[in-house]
Amino acid sequence: MFTILPIKGYIDQIDGFFCDGIHAGLKANNALDLGFIYSDTLCDVEAIFTENKFQAAPLKHYLMYEKDFKTNFVLINSKNANALTGKKGIENINTVFASLPFELTNPIMSSTGVIANPLPVEKIVNGAKTFNLSAKNGENLSKAIMTTDAYSKTSMYEVKLEDGSSFKIGSVAKGAGMINPNLATMLCFICTDAAVPKEDMKEALKLNSQTTFNAISVDGDTSTNDTVLLLTNKKSNAYNKEAFFEALRMVMHDMAMLMVADGEGAKKAVAFEVKNAATYEEAQKAAKALSNSLLVKTALFGEDPNFGRIASTIGASRITCDEDKLIISYNDVIVYKEGEIFFDKEQEAKAASVLQNDKFKIVCDLGVGTYNFTAYGCDLGYKYVEINADYRT
């Protein structure tokens, strides 16, 4: 048995982890734009990255390390993605690390921002030289890694095991736009003092990503920099596989839901629950199609329960489906059932009322099997266009 308790605060509450964020001149108006995570002992590290074929220089730099390397330092900058920068992008990362006056072991860099601009090496080096590696300022770090985010994204839990031992796990992340299943324009850094075996780290990340980061969509675009890093210094000497997998799932789910809710002007966070599909893959395919559909997203923005768009999107996904078995509902308000339309004025008003909420679910029971999958998305409105039209300025 084990207990998982949410706790307030940032990753600096975890024994042996330190962090901070500063202004290095990448953003205007003295906004924080450069941060770090430091461990006073070496950490095992695992990562999952974007499926975009044009992976950014920081990802390529990470993959150049030997298998099962350990690290004690992560450097994170915003405003510049260091993507599509070729060999020079990797050279610039090496220059940055070689210029810092700290004892670093296999340091990792992570970047977010505008694609296809050279990394501002001098600004980053000058800023990083001012780091205090004994700082514990998770709030500053959470702000420094933001781009179009409306708010910082953090999550923390303490896991208490049956033998009286315990460990903590927490995360800091950014992500609001270019969010698509198969990760998103997101950086997520998960730290723990759990004594996790290396092989369990990889398994847990891969397993939990399928129902969290790989199940969300804001706009259907997949970035070049998407990164989820899991770091453990094992200082607690405590571990239980079931407890760790569940706590990691909870952290990743928290981060994914915060990203969807912050979807660059989004007002609605929506769960698309596909039930009773013929296969798990088809349930997943249909749910993700719904979360990606621009017609569905704009209907959500207009608070219009246009269930025809829901049905059309499912059919267009080319999965096994039958209109005489399909049931569509907004929360528990049924609007279509097995070939019959339940959409008189009273029922439409009830469905529209559901869409006025900040959070709700759209349930599609296919009635052709036993497999389920839930994807998560949001509405898409004027603010999204405004933000992305002016992104480079």
UniProtKB/TrEMBL annotation:
Pathway: Amino-acid biosynthesis; L-arginine biosynthesis; L-ornithine and N-acetyl-L-glutamate from L-glutamate and N(2)-acetyl-L-ornithine (cyclic): step 1/1; Amino-acid biosynthesis; L-arginine biosynthesis; N(2)-acetyl-L-ornithine from L-glutamate: step 1/4
Known catalytic reactions: N(2)-acetyl-L-ornithine + L-glutamate = N-acetyl-L-glutamate + L-ornithine; L-glutamate + acetyl-CoA = N-acetyl-L-glutamate + CoA + H(+)
Subunit structure: Heterotetramer of two alpha and two beta chains.
Residues at the site labelled Involved in the stabilization of negative charge on the oxyanion by the formation of the oxyanion hole: 112-113
Originating organism: Malaciobacter mytili LMG 24559
Family indicated by similarity: Belongs to the ArgJ family.
Name used for this protein in its record: Arginine biosynthesis bifunctional protein ArgJ
Function, in words: Catalyzes two activities which are involved in the cyclic version of arginine biosynthesis: the synthesis of N-acetylglutamate from glutamate and acetyl-CoA as the acetyl donor, and of ornithine by transacetylation between N(2)-acetylornithine and glutamate.
GO biological process, any: ornithine biosynthetic process
Binding site for substrate: 147, 174, 185, 264, 388, 393
Principal subcellular localisation of the protein: cytoplasm
Record GO cellular component, one term: cytoplasm
Keyword Transferase listed: yes
Subcellular location: Cytoplasm
HAMAP family linked: ArgJ
GO-annotated molecular function: L-glutamate N-acetyltransferase activity; L-glutamate N-acetyltransferase activity, acting on acetyl-L-ornithine as donor
Pfam families according to UniProt: ArgJ
EC number in record: 2.3.1.35, 2.3.1.1
Keywords linked to the UniProt accession: Acyltransferase, Amino-acid biosynthesis, Arginine biosynthesis, Autocatalytic cleavage, Cytoplasm, Multifunctional enzyme, Transferase
Marked site: Cleavage: 184-185
EC supergroup of this enzyme: transferase
Catalytic residues as annotated in Swiss-Prot or TrEMBL: 185 (nucleophile)
